[in-house]
Amino acid sequence: MKNIDCEIYISQMITFFSNNPGDFMDLVGDVQKEEFFQKIRERSLKNLEDGDDCVLTKQQIIDIVIELKVPELSNRKKIEKHIFKTKFGDINLN
Protein backbone atom coordinates (compact mmCIF):
# COMPACT_ATOMS: atom_id res chain seq x y z
CA MET A 1 0.00 0.00 0.00
CA LYS A 2 2.82 2.41 0.81
CA ASN A 3 4.36 1.79 -2.62
CA ILE A 4 1.14 3.15 -4.15
CA ASP A 5 1.56 6.32 -2.07
CA CYS A 6 5.06 6.66 -3.47
CA GLU A 7 3.84 6.28 -7.06
CA ILE A 8 1.10 8.86 -6.47
CA TYR A 9 3.68 11.28 -5.06
CA ILE A 10 5.98 10.80 -8.07
CA SER A 11 3.05 11.13 -10.47
CA GLN A 12 2.04 14.42 -8.84
CA MET A 13 5.59 15.74 -9.13
CA ILE A 14 5.77 14.78 -12.82
CA THR A 15 2.40 16.41 -13.48
CA PHE A 16 3.39 19.57 -11.62
CA PHE A 17 6.68 19.96 -13.48
CA SER A 18 5.02 19.12 -16.82
CA ASN A 19 2.53 21.93 -16.23
CA ASN A 20 5.23 24.29 -14.89
CA PRO A 21 8.41 23.72 -16.93
CA GLY A 22 9.87 27.02 -15.73
CA ASP A 23 9.78 25.78 -12.15
CA PHE A 24 11.62 22.62 -13.18
CA MET A 25 14.32 24.67 -14.88
CA ASP A 26 14.59 26.91 -11.78
CA LEU A 27 14.99 23.88 -9.50
CA VAL A 28 17.03 21.46 -11.57
CA GLY A 29 18.33 23.30 -14.61
CA ASP A 30 19.48 21.31 -17.61
CA VAL A 31 19.45 17.89 -15.92
CA GLN A 32 17.51 15.17 -17.73
CA LYS A 33 13.97 14.91 -16.36
CA GLU A 34 13.91 11.12 -16.48
CA GLU A 35 17.09 10.87 -14.47
CA PHE A 36 15.82 13.38 -11.91
CA PHE A 37 12.50 11.58 -11.46
CA GLN A 38 14.26 8.22 -11.19
CA LYS A 39 16.42 9.57 -8.35
CA ILE A 40 13.30 11.00 -6.68
CA ARG A 41 11.59 7.60 -6.98
CA GLU A 42 14.62 5.77 -5.54
CA ARG A 43 14.90 8.15 -2.60
CA SER A 44 11.16 8.01 -1.94
CA LEU A 45 11.24 4.19 -1.84
CA LYS A 46 14.27 4.30 0.47
CA ASN A 47 12.35 6.62 2.79
CA LEU A 48 9.55 4.05 2.93
CA GLU A 49 12.01 1.24 3.68
CA ASP A 50 13.44 3.33 6.52
CA GLY A 51 9.93 3.84 7.94
CA ASP A 52 9.69 7.49 6.93
CA ASP A 53 7.18 9.34 4.77
CA CYS A 54 7.58 8.90 1.01
CA VAL A 55 7.53 12.69 0.50
CA LEU A 56 11.08 13.99 0.18
CA THR A 57 12.37 16.75 2.40
CA LYS A 58 13.84 19.95 1.01
CA GLN A 59 17.34 18.72 1.90
CA GLN A 60 16.79 15.40 0.10
CA ILE A 61 15.73 17.20 -3.09
CA ILE A 62 18.74 19.52 -2.83
CA ASP A 63 21.03 16.50 -2.40
CA ILE A 64 19.57 14.88 -5.54
CA VAL A 65 20.01 18.05 -7.59
CA ILE A 66 23.61 18.39 -6.39
CA GLU A 67 24.28 14.73 -7.15
CA LEU A 68 23.02 15.18 -10.71
CA LYS A 69 24.69 18.54 -11.36
CA VAL A 70 28.00 17.96 -9.57
CA PRO A 71 28.82 14.23 -9.75
CA GLU A 72 32.10 14.53 -7.84
CA LEU A 73 30.09 15.51 -4.73
CA SER A 74 27.82 12.45 -4.98
CA ASN A 75 29.98 10.51 -2.50
CA ARG A 76 29.28 13.05 0.24
CA LYS A 77 26.50 11.97 2.57
CA LYS A 78 25.38 15.41 3.61
CA ILE A 79 26.09 18.91 2.42
CA GLU A 80 26.39 21.21 5.38
CA LYS A 81 26.12 24.51 3.56
CA HIS A 82 23.79 25.63 0.83
CA ILE A 83 26.23 28.26 -0.45
CA PHE A 84 29.09 27.20 -2.67
CA LYS A 85 31.92 29.54 -3.54
CA THR A 86 33.05 29.17 -7.15
CA LYS A 87 35.23 31.15 -9.52
CA PHE A 88 32.00 32.50 -11.02
CA GLY A 89 30.67 33.75 -7.69
CA ASP A 90 28.57 32.35 -4.88
CA ILE A 91 25.89 29.76 -5.66
CA ASN A 92 22.97 29.59 -3.24
CA LEU A 93 21.04 26.30 -3.25
CA ASN A 94 18.24 27.51 -1.02
Could you walk me through the main structural features you see in this protein, from its secondary elements to its overall organization?
The protein is mainly α. It has one domain (2-92). Helices cover 57% and strands 9% of the residues. The chain has helices spanning 2-19, 21-27, 33-49, 58-69; strands at 83-86, 89-92. Strands 1-2 form a two-stranded antiparallel sheet. A hairpin with a 2-residue loop joins strand 1 and strand 2 (89-92). Helix 1 crosses helix 2, helix 1 (2-19) runs antiparallel to helix 3 (33-49) and helix 3 (33-49) packs across helix 4 (58-69).
Strand order of the largest sheet: 1-2
Per DSSP, what share of the residues sits in E-state strands of 2 or more residues?
5-15%
Low-confidence stretches: none
Mean pLDDT: 81
Number of strands: 2
For the biggest sheet, the summary is: 2 strands, antiparallel
Tally of separate domains: 1
Q: What proportion of the residues is helical, as a percent range?
A: 55-70%
Rg value: 14 Å
Class per helix and strand makeup: mainly alpha
Q: Categorize the overall geometry.
A: globular
Number of H- or I-type helical stretches = 4
What is the ordering of alpha helices and beta strands?
A: HHHHEE
Distance between termini?
A: 33 Å
Provide key terms for this protein.
mainly alpha; 4 helices; globular
Question: What is the topology?
Answer:
Blueprint: H1 2-19, H2 21-27, H3 33-49, H4 58-69, E1 83-86, E2 89-92
Antiparallel strand pairs: 1-2
Helix pairs in contact: 1-2, 1-3, 3-4
